[in-house]
Every structure is written in structure tokens, then in C-alpha cells.
Amino acid sequence: MRGVGLSDPVEDLPPLEEWMDDVRTVMDAVGSDRAALVGHGHAGQLCMLVAASHPDRVQALVTVNGAEAAMGCQAALMISTPGWS
Fold first, then answer.
1. Cα distance between residue 57 and residue 47, in whole Å
2. Is the pTM of this model over 0.85?
3. Per-residue pLDDT of the chain (85 residues; tens, 9 = 90+)
4. N or C: which end of the chain has fewer CB within 10 A?
5. Using an 8 Å Cβ cutoff, are 55 and 83 in contact?
6. What does the alpha-carbon distance between residue 47 and residue 50 come to, in Å, rounded to a whole number?
């Protein structure tokens, strides 16, 4: 993720929508049609948004310490992804 961990620092962190594009770009670059997404904290929210927006690209989803901060996102995930609860 840009501006996090060992990536180059950024002045302003991008919105989650840009990080969602980054996830899809990396998946496309490595030839992955579907992936298991794992996110902690803010990245958990990111993973939930990717899963809600692109359920066909997500094989499994694990969030740690992120769901309670993203209840709106969690609700959107359940509504937009039939069969997930």
C-alpha cells in the first residue's frame, strides 16, 4: 500500500478507492484472477471494499481489527454479495 510499510512515503494518503485500484493492478500484474485478501486495521477496510466491489476477484476474505471501524462497509459487503453473511 502506498505510504505504508516499506513503500515510499507519501505526503497525503490516497483514498481507499485508489488503494482498491492498486490491489487490482497488482493482481493483474501477477496474473491472479482471484485472491485471498487479508487486511489488518485500515487494510481490513480496504479488503472489505475490494470484496464488496469486485466479489468475482476475491476467493476468501480475512480482516483483523478493521471490521468494527467499518460497519458501513461490512453492511455494504453483505448487501452487495449474495450468499455472504
1. 11
2. no
3. 777 778 888 888 788 888 899 999 999 999 999 999 998 888 888 888 898 889 999 999 888 876 555 555 555 555 455 555 5
4. C
5. no
6. 5
Phi, psi of 39 (to 5 degrees): -140, 140
Q: Name the E strands within 41-80.
A: 58-64
Residue 55 identity (one-letter amino acid): P
Cα of 27 vs its chain's centroid, Å: 12
Q: Which three cell numbers stand for residue 10?
A: 507519501
In a 13 Å sphere around the CA of 18, the CA atoms on its Cβ side amount to: 7
